[in-house]
């Protein structure tokens, strides 16, 4: 009985690879340091004094009594806000990013996601050529870990708004959007499957049937699992929480998209790619709305055609592949969006030149350095939502029994897992102690396999398809809804330059 089999080998091999490769190669560092990103440098105090005509203070250098070395005393002075300053630029290096806030978390999420994708790809290839029904798919554990890490990081970033006394507006925005998404989710979970085919109703029916049968086999009297209304309410609460976590990543994405379009007015192909990139999540949302997607493409026969445009299997495959294309396109365009964010330092100074009054040199430099300091935070807000959508779709495909191919799924060969002593090759007679040990081991293995089979009767493919199908669709929905809200704000409530 090989419950783990090749899956365990693949996992152990890649754990070893991570330990060997991680110190020498990091995809996260490559995105920040090898894609041509540039950052803006603030002028020194001496340059600011010279441009503003501020005389140098006497006694600027003094002795630090603690160590006896001559050091430059930090001084604060005022300069005009409309001071004509040209900021210098430099390429981002790995020595610059290692000190940024949340860099370690960003590096771990991106690199672990890369390894998880490789493990998942190898596992899917292995199962395609050697389909074994009863082998545990450990690549699902890798996918689940990526989803957990992404959710945890988004929660950690959102909690920062509740800890700071200066973030009253952000805190209120999170609460309001969370409640709005809760209301929307409570309406969506009761939408019939003939309109929105997320499969929640089918999942509940199959789970109810399997759980009742399992409890009856165990001799436990029960009145059935939890009420459907209660389950749907908790699902809606989780949807509201996820929507609140996606709010500021969506607003940040909209700001970067708005600025990127402004910077590439003369590059029509790039502008088209950026708009396609922004609209793809909306296409994903539509692919789960049955009257305008599945019914239209797989059931309706147009004039001059003998069959529908595609089969249900092809439709399922295209829906999954569209998610991968959307995520891949976002990752390819990420340097452009990050450069648009870094250009905020330049935009801030240009806006400041239009203002009257004076500003301290410390505040002036903080306006520039804070942009680069939060680069990894912004990158996490950009990547974490799309990685959650990607790996939820992986789990939706594998646990839901779907296929990547454009043909019906290959029949899965039944693998006999009953362990019989008669089927084992005859060897030299065993001692009584060895026979007892082998019998105990076989009994433990049989009990474990029986428990696993009982759980499979409860958590069937229909149950997984409903859970992860809805999770995938909802993550795509809030991904697009939050970005759309941000674009609406940028278009109608900010000054266009």
Automatic annotation (TrEMBL):
The protein's topology relative to the membrane is: Multi-pass membrane protein
Q: Where are the transmembrane segments?
A: 139-162, 174-191, 229-251, 272-289, 318-338, 371-396, 467-489
Where are the annotated segments for Disordered?
55-75
Q: Where is the composition biased (Basic and acidic residues)?
A: 55-72
Q: Where is the signal peptide?
A: 1-23
UniProt keyword annotation of Iron-sulfur present:
no
Keyword line: Glycoprotein, Membrane, Signal, Transmembrane, Transmembrane helix
InterPro entries from the UniProt entry: Transmembrane_161A/B
Subcellular location per UniProt equals: Membrane
Q: Which Pfam families match?
A: Tmemb_161AB
For this record, an example GO cellular component is: membrane
PANTHER family referenced in this protein's UniProt entry, alphabetically = EMEI (PTHR13624:SF6), RE42071P (PTHR13624)
Family stated for the protein in its record: Belongs to the TMEM161 family.
Indicate what this protein is called per its UniProt record: Transmembrane protein 161B
From which organism does this entry originate?
A: Chironomus riparius
